[in-house]
Amino acid sequence: MGFLDAIFYAFIVVVLIQVIFYIFFFGRFAFVEHIGQTSKSKIPVSVIICAKNEAKNLKVFLPSIINQDYPNFEIVLINDASHDKTLKVMQSFQKLHKNIKIVDVKGIEAFWGNKKYALTLGIKASTNDFLLFTDADCKPLSKHWISEMVSYFNSEKTIVLGYGAYSKIKKSFLNKLIRFETLVTAIHYFSFAKLGLAYMGVGRNLAYTKQEFFNANGFINHIQVRSGDDDLFVNQVATNVNTAICLSENSFTESTPKTTFKDWFKQKRRHVSTASYYKFKHKALLTLIYSSQFLFWIFALILLISSFKWLIVCSLMLLLLTVKYIVFWFSSKKLREFDLLLFVPFLEIFLIFTQLTIFINNLISKPNHWK
């Protein structure tokens, strides 16, 4: 068997793997019908926001939390050793709203730059048993965010995964790339959760019970990892029965995206660095997904340049791209990211090589701080 024959058969295997993932894994999310609220009881909720040097963002985004249409909630604002006016902004809001509680965290050497320490203090200070998390630079897209997210709590469901989008910036390739990466990640973690293999959530829009937190001894199992207060915790405690996903548009949040490649690259380095701490089954599946994506484009390029059985190669590429577009069509419609469809192949190629670069960088040095 010659070199090109080997590449050709490997290409067929890679296409088959990708088709299986997109139909039987990601299709579970793409084609699922939205299930409405499972509970209409207005349980007491603590909304927790950890902020480090976020004075400007709190002024802009905190009112969207305060003005939620929900009868029984408190807002726990955690000032994580900020050196700007974050604490003063928090105090100015607290004077006007009785349901705001402030936790002022002083930096200590043992946990310097570790968001998990600050979050732990905030969780312990919270009054209610049901916790809803978001970021200081994040806003709910409706006044029903709290009610939608917590409606999925019941005797079995103790974790609720929500969608945290990024705002759109016109004529910005970086913005499209950030939003595409966010869409792909959401398709992955929602699909895995539907299959009973929940492996992560995003701190921009995540809910779980205080009992779940204390049963796991908080973040102690990965406290040495600077990032991962959201995905590593979910990876640790999620099971095939305790995790729900919320797909209502009223439950979505929207964050301010990075505006330079340097800042986004730094942010993604922190996020990617946590994946090595996932459970083995999750790491194995994710590795298979990303490696088969990478090999698909590499093998396709080699075969097309060589004109080796190009008709079959093109047919297989068309098959996979059609399957992908169908999945992305229904998924992006659910998550209000429809404008990205036209750029899917190009964004995917760029994202694959960006992730490869991040992986190589993280092998050389580890990111140390959450901000």
Automatic annotation (TrEMBL):
Gene Ontology molecular function: glycosyltransferase activity
Keywords noted in UniProt: Glycosyltransferase, Membrane, Transferase, Transmembrane, Transmembrane helix
Domain Glycosyltransferase 2-like: 46-179
Enzyme class: transferase
SUPFAM superfamilies xref list: Nucleotide-diphospho-sugar transferases
A Pfam entry, by short name: Glycos_transf_2
InterPro entries: Glyco_trans_2-like, Nucleotide-diphossugar_trans
Entry EC number(s): 2.4.-.-
Ranges annotated as spanning the membrane: 6-31, 284-304, 310-328, 340-364
Annotated PANTHER family: POLY-BETA-1,6-N-ACETYL-D-GLUCOSAMINE SYNTHASE
Family to which this protein belongs: Belongs to the glycosyltransferase 2 family.
Protein's UniProt name: Glycosyltransferase
Species whose genome carries this gene: Flaviramulus multivorans
